[in-house]
Amino acid sequence: MKQIGILGGTFDPPHIGHFIIADEVKHQLQLDEIWFIPTNEPPHKKKAMMAKHHRVNMLNAVIEKINYFKVNTIECNRIGKSYTIDTINTLKEIHRDVNFYFIIGADMVEYLPYWKDIEKLEKKIQFVGVKRPGFKMDTAYSVMEVKVPLIDISSTEVKHRIEKGLPVQFFLPNAVLTYIKEHRLYESE
Question: What is the domain-level CATH number for residue 28?
Answer without folding.
Answer: 3.40.50.620
